[in-house]
Amino acid sequence: MHAAWWLGRLFLRLSRSAGSARLTQGPGHRGLSSHRRDPELSSFVARTNTCGELRSSHLGQEVTLCGWIQYRRQNMFLVLRDFHGLVQVVIPQDESAEAVKKILCDAPVESVVQVCGTVISRPPGQENPKMPTGEIEIKVKKAEILNSCKRLPFEIKDFVKKTEAIRLQYRYLDLRSFQMQHNLRVRSQMVMKMREYLCNLHGFVDIETPTLFKRTPGGAKEFVVPSREPGKFYSLPQSPQQFKQLLMVGGLDRYFQVARCYRDEGSRPDRQPEFTQIDIEMSFVDQIGIQSLIEGLLQYSWPTDKDPVVVPFPSMTFAEAIASYGTDKPDTRFGMKIVDISDVFRNTKIEFLQEALSKPQGSVKAINIPKGIKYLKRKDIESIRKFATDHFNQEVLPVFLKANRNWNSPVAKIIVEEQSQGLSRLMETQEEDVVLLTAGEHNTAEREPEHHSSTFSARGQIQNFMLESLIL
C-alpha cells in the first residue's frame, strides 16, 4: 500500500515534468520551453525547505530544516548552512525549552542538525542585507543532532586559506566549500543542457560503450586490468573511438556520450590519467557541420552568469598556428606571436644570423614581450635561455630596446643600434618591450608536428615556457 502511494506520487511528478518541458519551435530556432517548473529541492526528504530559500513571504510558516552549524553567537543565535544558503536560527532562552537550548548550545560547529520552528521577522534594525535570508529568522521549537562533529583540521569558511595539499587530504571537507559546491553544480547543469541540446533538439542518441576493452596500439599508453585467465588482460579505453565507428557502421548516424577516458601519461605535465569528454560522432557531415554543432552546443549549455559565448569561434589553419605560435594548440590570450624578421637581417654582419640565413630553410624569428622590462627579471631571462639550450640546443638572444640597458650582450647592442627601426616596424615594439630572438632552420609548415625540426618546434615550446613564467 505504501509503495503504491509512492509510485503514484512519482508518476504524477514525472507527468508534470514531461508536460512542462515540451519543446517549442519558433522561426529558425528550436528551444526548450521557458515555463519549466523550478526543481523541488525538498521532495522525498525530511526537511520542508532549504536554508537559503526562506524569505519574508514565508512568515508564520512552520518549517523543518536540516544543515550544518556554520557558527554560533553568544549561545543565542546560530547560523545553519546547507548547499542552498544560510539562515539564522534563534536559540530559545526560556526554561520550557531548556532541552532544545542544550542541544543547540552543546553541538560542535559543523555538526549536522535538524530544527523545527516558525519563520519570524528579525527585530527592527537587526536585518542583514548581505544575506538573502537576512530579513527573517527561525524560532526553534524542536532540535535534533543528526551527526556530531569532531575537531576539524580547518574551518569550513571560504575566507580561510588552505593549502592544496590539505584540501586534497580532506577532500570530503573541502567539498562543503561554496566554490566546490558551485563548480560541481555548474558542471551538472552544463551536462544536462548538453544532453538537451544533442538529444532533444538534434536527435542524437546517448549510448554507453564498454570500459573493459582490448589493447589499441598507438597514441598514449593504456592502463591494464588483469583477468582471471593467466596471460590475458583488459585495457581501459583511451577514448570510444572504435566503438563509435562501429555505431556509425551499424546505422546510428548521430551518437554521443559523456565518456570517461583513461590514459597512462604520468610523465606529461599537461595530462591527467582520467578525464571526461563529450564524445560525438556523426555520419554524412563535413567540417563546417561539426564546427557549427560544437559552437551551438557550447552556446546553448553555457552558464547564464558568465559572459555569453560569441559564435562563430575564431579559427586558424594548422599552418597559421605553427607559423604564429610554433604549436598546434596555441594560447592566444597573450598575443606575442612569432614574427619572421629574416628580411631585416639579410645584410647583417652578425655571424650566427648569417649562418642561419645561408641555409635553405633558414630564418630569423622573434617574439615581442610588451613591457618586458617591467615584468622580466634577469633570472627569468636566464631560465628561458637555459630551457631552450637544454631541451633544443637552441640559442635565444634577448634584445632590450633601451640601448642603455646593461643586460644587453654586445651582439644585442649591435642589433639595437643597426636594426631598431626595422624591428619596430615589423614587431610594433615600444621602448620598454623585450624581443626574444632566435635563428635556425625549419621544415615547411604543412608537415605533421612530429616531423618539424627541433629549431622550429622549440620556438613554440619556448613561448609556452615564457608565458608560464609570466603568469606565475
Automatic annotation (TrEMBL):
InterPro entries: Aa-tRNA-synt_II, aa-tRNA-synth_II, aa-tRNA-synth_II/BPL/LPL, Asp-tRNA-ligase_1, Asp-tRNA-ligase_1_N, GAD-like_sf, Lys-tRNA-synth_II_C, NA-bd_OB-fold. It comes from the Eukaryota. One of its GO terms (molecular function) is ligase activity. Keywords: Aminoacyl-tRNA synthetase, ATP-binding, Ligase, Nucleotide-binding, Protein biosynthesis, Signal. Residues 184-341 form the Aminoacyl-transfer RNA synthetases class-II family profile domain. The keyword Protein transport does not apply. PANTHER family: ASPARTATE--TRNA LIGASE, MITOCHONDRIAL (PTHR22594:SF5), ASPARTYL/LYSYL-TRNA SYNTHETASE (PTHR22594). This is Lysine--tRNA ligase. It comes from Erinaceus europaeus (Western European hedgehog).
